[in-house]
Amino acid sequence: MAEWSGYLTLILQGALVTVQLTLMGSALALVVAFLAGLGRIAPWGPLRWLATAYIEFFRGTSIFVQLFWVYFVLPFAGASLSPLAAGVLALGLNVGAYGAEVVRGAVLSVPRDQREATVALNLTPYQRMRHVILPQALPLMLPTFGNNAIELLKATAVVSLISLTDMTFQAQVVRAQTGSTLVPFLTILVLYFLMALAISAGVRAFERRLTAGLDGVR
Amino acid sequence: MTGPIIRIDRLDKSFGALKVLDGLSFDVMPGEKLALIGPSGSGKTTILRILMTLETISGGHVEVCGEQLFHMQRGGREVPADEAHLHHMRRHIGMVFQHFNLFPHKSVLDNITLAPILTKGEPRAKAEARAKELLEMVGLADKAEAMPSQLSGGQKQRVAIARALALKPRIMLFDEVTSALDPELVEEVLLVMKRLAAETDMTMLLVTHEMGFAHEFADRVLFFDKGRIVEQGPPETIFRHPTHERTQAFLRKIIAAGHRV
User: Fold this and answer.
1) CA distance B155 to chain A (A)
2) Apex CA A161: angle with CA A155 and CA A167, to 5°?
3) For B164, how many CA atoms within 13 A lie in the half-sphere containing its CB?
C-alpha cells in the first residue's frame, strides 16, 4: 500500500503539470483567439489575410505535428524552448485557431441594428466594439470557449511525447514500474474527468454572471 | 447660418442593379420640420440612412451644416471622406430607428449617457443629470435604472429619442419610429415628438406612414416615388389638394387602409 501512495504522488505531480499546461495554454489561446478573430473581420486587408492564414494553418494540421515543430524544429531556427514553453505555445496556438472562429462568429451575430445605433451615436470603431458589440458577443462565446478549454485539457496528453512529465507521462512511468495498467490509467481517467467537470462548472458560473443583466434579451 | 442646413444635390444611390435614389435634389432650411412620405421602396428611408452615414452614396453630393458629408478636400482635390471626417460630421446629426436599437446590456440611464461620456468626454455626473432631464421630458423619469427588456415598445422608443437628444444634434432623423409599435402605444411617442417640434429649433426629418401626424408635425411634406420627389409643399396642399396623380393614388390607398389624413 505504501508503495502505491508513492506512485499516486507521482501521478499527482503530473496532474499539477497538466493543470499548469491547461491554464497557461488556455490563457494564450484566449488572447490569440481575440487577436485572430477580430483580425479576420478587420477593415484592413493584410490583417484579415494574416489572421485567416493563421487560423487555416493551425486548424488544418495536427496538434501532434505542431508540437514536434515547435520543440524539435524551431531550435534549428535559433529558438530553443523549454518543454513547458513549447507545450503551452503549441496548445495555445492550436486551440486559439478554433477560438478565433468562435470570436468572429459571435461578433458577427450581434444584430446589425446595434452597430447602426453606435454609428448614429458617433462612437469610434474601437468604442463600438468595446462598449456595445463585445459585451453582447461575449456571452455567446462562453459555452464554446468551455468546450475548447476541455479539448485543450485533453490535448495536453500529447506533451508527454516531448518528455514533459504531465499526468499521462507519469501514468506511463507507473505502468512501466508496476506492470499494472488498470490502476494508473483508471486514476488519470478519473482525474481528467474531474478537471473537465471543473472547467464546465467554472464557465457556467461565469456565463451566469455575465448574462445576469441580459434577462429576456435573447 | 443663413443658407440651408442640408443640401442634397443630384444624389444617386443604387443597391447593385437596383436604383433607389435617382438624381435627387432638395434643400432643408435650419429649423424646418420635414415629412417624407411615399410607398415602400420609394427611397425615403434611404435618404435618412445616407444622412446618418449608414449608407454610402453612388453619386452626387450631400452637404450638412455647410460641409460636404461624403467628400473632403485634400491637396486641393475632392476625395471620398475618411472615418475621421465622417466622425466630425456625425456630431450634427441624431437618428431614431424603427426598432429603437437600445443597447440591451445597459440600463436606460447608461444607454443615454454612453455617447456623451465617450464622444464628448462629459463627466459622468453631468451626463447623468442631463439624461435625467431628458427622461423627465419623455415622461420616463422613474425608469432610469430599468433595463430595456423591462420596458414597453413605446417606452423603449421614448428612451431612444432621449438617447439621440443627449448629444444635442442640430438635425434629428426619425425613421418610421412608430411602425413597430402596438397601436395603443403610438400616441405616447407622437406626443413626445410634437413637444420636441414645438419647443426646439432642431431641424427634423421624419419618414412616416402616420399621415395625420405628418400633417400636424411638418412644415413641408415631400412625396417620394421611385427615388424621386413627385410633389412637395405645405401639408395642407399635399394632403388636401395634391396635384399629381400618383400622390392622389397613394393617399387614396392610405385612406382605404384606414389611416387618418
Assistant:
1) 16
2) 60
3) 32
Closest-CA residue of B relative to A212 is: B105
Q: What is the ipTM of this complex?
A: 0.92
pLDDT digits (tens, 9 = 90+) for B63-98: 999 999 999 988 889 999 999 999 999 999 999 999
Domain boundaries, chain A: 2-214
Nearest to B118 among A120, A125, A131 (CB): A131
From the CA of A43, how many Å to the nearest CA of chain B? 12
* A124 touching B (Cβ < 8 Å): yes
Q: Summarize pLDDT for B209-258 with one digit per residue, the tens.
A: 889 899 989 999 999 999 999 999 999 999 999 999 999 999 988 878 76
Residues of chain B with Cβ-Cβ distance to A119 below 8 Å are 52-54, 90
Closest CA to A206 of A28, A19, A21, A30: A30
Q: Check CB contact of A122 with chain B, cutoff 8 Å.
A: yes
The helix/strand/coil state of B13 is strand
Cell of B187: 400616441
Question: Options 3.40.50.1220, 1.10.3720.10, 3.30.470.20, 3.40.50.80; which CATH number does A2-214 get?
Answer: 1.10.3720.10
